[in-house]
Amino acid sequence: MPRPWIRSCFPVLALMLLAACGREQQQEVEPPRPGPIEEVMVTAPPPPDAAPPAQEPLPPLFRDIEKRTFQFFWDTTDERNGMTPDRFPSRPFASVAAIGFALTAYPVGIENGWIGRRQAVDRTLLTLEFLLESPQGPEETGTIGHRGFFYHFLDMRSGHRYEPWVELSSVDTGLMMLGVLFAQSYYDGDDPREQRIREVAEELYRRIEWPWLQQRPPLISMGWYPERGFIEHDWTGYDEAMLVYILALGSPTYPVEPEAWTTWTQTYDDSWGIFQGQEYLSFAPHFGHQYSHAWIDFRGIRDAYMRGRGIDYFENSRRATYAQRSYAIENPMGWKGYGADIWGLTASDGPQRTDQVYEGTLRGFRHYSARGAGIAVAFDDGTIAPTAAIGSLPYAPEIVIPATRALVEQYGEYLFSSYGFLDSFNPSFDYDIPLKTGRIVPDKGWVASDYIGIDQGPILIGIANYRNDFVWDVMKRNPHIRRGLERAGFTGGWLAELQAQDEAEALDRAADEAGAADATDEVDDAAEAPEADRTSTVAPPRGG
What we know:
- By secondary structure, the chain is an alpha+beta fold.
- Helices cover 44% and strands 10% of the residues.
- The longest helix has 36 residues, at 493-528.
- Helix 3 crosses helix 4 and helix 4 packs parallel to helix 15.
- Residues 26-54, 505-544 are annotated as: Disordered.
- Residues 1-19 form the signal peptide.
């Protein structure tokens, strides 16, 4: 149930005033241009007192969004086992991907003073131990996963596979494991419970048998069903599978070989091109440009593919975000509401799977579906998801901040509620037909009735990373993530800084060890010298 502070939250008029009060002049930022950008070469670690570049302060509205979105994960997660629902308030099952976002959300709450560290430690350890101790195996029922992987959807109470249609998922396991490894790096205290978090996180990661899903090596399959075996589709083309390959490459126990990354990136070329004036590696639903980036800072680091293209994956997501906005401005399908400040297509809820006549043309609409605009496969039925824009805050704040304000001002009364933004809305859909979820609002169209965990997560993490690189900086300390990136061929940027720092620390240690050895030799020499020699350096007593 919602907490008391939520039940007494500001009325919508106050939210609009809050947004209006934050209308300080935005700094003019030049949009991305096609072509390569200069690569920053790092040869030495930054000075210890070097300050990170200052970000433009966010309007107060974002603090409210951040807190409400955090509260979604804290309030809806089951306190008995740590299972986080896929969606709320209709919550039939847990989502392992949502668990990964929840494990990342708790430290955001600590850093903002919304919960205590002990509260978060207790919730995190409960979740990790439940995941570790729940049964795994090839059986069709009664297990949480198999060979270290987890089923996509789990029963909220038992944690077992929810239904026969649920797959053992490589990418959803990966999203959960990013949260697990984030917890491992964040809880670095000497308290026995924090030590236990680190130990359990390590065990969960080490037992995943990544090569088992390489049924058509070196690519990795999307998953497996106990009833019918491996999914016939592998992860190919640019998408959220970046995180799958990086985690698989970083495994200390069951790693895949670097050729997996090389072969995967060789499937990119059909997705590279110019769309809406942006030259970039395209994936139409915007979550593909957000999920891996939520935990991993791709600024300044490049693999072989991106070195060849002359940009990094962060710049790629920035260009994709601008392309999303440009598509909405052009609005080729003539949907209502699209424009410079109302945009964002990704995987989200929608009104219903149905065909209806819209402005004289038969159009197809969907319920939950991937939506997007890009170079390759795309689908657009007029449904906009706030997470597509707000989760992109770190890439393009100059266009995301106005978009966020516009969402609150134009749709806030219907769209912005107890736990932040409901999943999606469709101003063009006002048909009088049965709906699977959501409702029709007069003169506003269809509005979702659920919050979805994997759409809430990018909003919360995006704001945290924009403010102070919080999630990114914690994950840079995780050796598994670093190893996965290095085995994928990433160089430069913060990876080069860490390598230079490691080398400097190694030299310091060597110097300290050499000094200690010299001191030991002097002591040994003194001990072996004749007594007369040992005392000859002592000044004789002075006479009176």
